[in-house]
Write a structure and sequence with these properties.
three-stranded antiparallel sheet; seven-stranded mixed sheet; alpha/beta; pyridoxal phosphate; Aspartate Aminotransferase, domain 1; 481 residues; single chain
């Protein structure tokens, strides 16, 4: 019989090439164990509310009123909702053409894009144009939209940091492009060396690949480092010299757990560098309501902002955005509230600050508990999580463990993570899903489990790890960095 279009053998080959480790083999096994009644701690994905983080009160009040506008007509509404939440709900409903059930402009509601532009202006000290901001269903959709616009075929390469967030490898595969890795240096706290970038570009060009864009994830996922201003200047100069578009994944900009290296946006550094760089380097920056102290992953709200992108290209991106008619409207309102939160003097300000500070301070403590916990384990080394939501410890696997993994038909860190899952219920992601240097093994875990549960989780990890090492160590040596 002839093959049908949706028979596996006749599918689009690009779809078959897609790998997405965050929801891969480990996650599927964890889901099976959960169905069998085992308690699973899902630390495989940055999903704060799933691990017990409470939503911020004010944005939920505003969106609740927008979702149920008849409440605004109830004479008792003021008993249930603060006056500033009521005022903001009326404000956002006035921006729509029929409430939350109506499509918006394909770029998002103009009023909310204006609020995003004002936020960027306050953050960076340089004005932003709302016409160059598109609201999206989470940052991931924006990243995919831009990669789809850039990649013309297999000969087009995108520079991606390794270890990388698998959204990039998956989307580049899906659109038929080529991922060009540049390696972050673990011994230098996951720093970025421009010489390494040059080598990566030269190697890609020697294979006939045209490198078109460069991705930075700042703060880093899965590595948790924060880029310094000096490093960002080097990156922007490199993009200027090599004629690359810079894609700035800045979704963790609120998640900073140390004071030495605050978040600085790529756009702020670009604008500060002056002409010709500030006028010529093409930059697309991404942000979301899914991360930070908001953690509203399920709402799917995000934006991207374009700098130095020609008007004709913006029109083409708008045309493609129009195919989906409209980004999720409730999520657009969440985004508006994130970029324009309660101000000093507002009724809800004190509660908003108390809640958001409480989440960030707890995350800072959890980052420290987890880093110290990993570093107390046999054959485990871990850089401190400066920002984002993840720990990325290196597991120095003994040769016998590597041999046992090969015998089981598993990549060594997958083998380790599966054993960890079966023994403890802790669901992580093997480092091989993010890319790593040959012969070096990691796992990624979020720092999101509840603070009161963290000591027990780290104790459980330590017990498993030390027993694993005892079982497989032959005291002749380990895998090296």
């Amino acid at each position: 019989m002839p093959l049908k279009a949706l028979d596996y053998e006749s599918l689009n080959e690009n779809v078959k090439k897609v790998q997405y480790a965050v929801r891969g083999e480990l996650y599927l096994r964890a889901s099976e164990l959960q169905k069998e009644g085992k308690k699973i701690i899902f630390t495989n994905v940055g999903n704060p509310h799933a691990l017990g983080q409470k939503p911020l009160t004010f944005p939920r009040q505003v969106v609740a009123l927008c979702q149920a506008p008849f409440l605004l007509d109830d004479p008792n509404v003021g008993l249930l909702f603060p006056a500033d939440a009521i005022a903001r709900a009326k404000h956002y409903l006035s921006l729509t053409s029929g409430g939350l059930g109506a499509y918006s402009d394909s770029r998002g509601l103009p009023g909310i894009r204006k609020e995003a532009a004002e936020f960027i202006g306050r953050r960076d000290g340089y004005p932003s144009d709302p016409e160059l901001i598109f609201l999206t269903d989470g940052a991931s959709k924006g990243v995919m939209q831009i990669l789809n616009t850039i990649i013309r075929g297999a000969g087009d390469g995108i520079l991606v940091p390794v270890p990388q967030y698998p959204l990039y490898s998956a989307a580049i595969s899906l659109y038929g492009g080529s991922l060009v890795p540049y390696y972050l240096e673990e011994t230098a706290n996951w720093g970025l060396d421009v010489n390494n970038l040059r080598q990566s570009v030269a190697e890609a060009r020697s294979k006939g690949i045209t490198v078109r864009a460069m991705v930075i994830i700042n703060p880093g996922n899965p590595t948790g480092q924060c880029l310094s201003e000096a490093n960002l200047k080097e990156i922007l100069s490199f993009c200027f010299q090599e004629n690359l578009v810079l894609l700035g994944d800045e979704v963790y900009q609120q998640n900073i757990y140390q004071d030495e290296r605050p978040f600085i946006s790529a756009r702020k550094v670009l604008m500060s560098m002056g002409a010709p760089i500030s006028k010529e380097v093409q930059l697309v920056s991404f942000h979301t309501v899914s991360k930070g102290y908001w953690g509203e992953c399920g709402q799917r709200g995000g934006y991207f902002e374009m700098t130095n992108i020609p008007p004709q290209t913006v029109d083409e991106i708008y045309k493609v955005a129009s195919i989906s008619l409209s980004p999720n409207v409730p999520a657009q309102i969440f985004l508006g509230l994130m970029v324009n939160p309660p101000r000093p003097g507002d009724i809800s300000y004190d509660q908003y600050i108390r809640e958001s500070k409480g989440i960030l301070e707890s995350l800072r403590r959890r980052a420290r508990i987890m880093t110290d916990g990993f570093n107390s384990c046999r054959n485990v080394v871990c850089n401190f999580t400066e920002g984002a939501m993840y720990s990325f410890p290196q597991i120095r696997l003994p040769p016998r463990a590597i041999e046992a993994a090969k015998s089981a038909g598993k990549v060594p860190d997958v083998f380790y993570c599966l054993k960890l899952l079966e023994a403890t219920g802790i669901s992580t992601v093997p480092g091989s899903g993010f890319g790593q240097k040959e012969g070096v093994f990691h796992l990624r875990t979020t720092i999101l489990p509840a603070e009161e549960d963290m000591p027990a989780i780290m104790s459980s990890f330590k017990q498993f790890n030390d027993e694993f090492m005892e079982q497989y160590e032959d005291h002749r040596g380990y895998s090296r960095m």
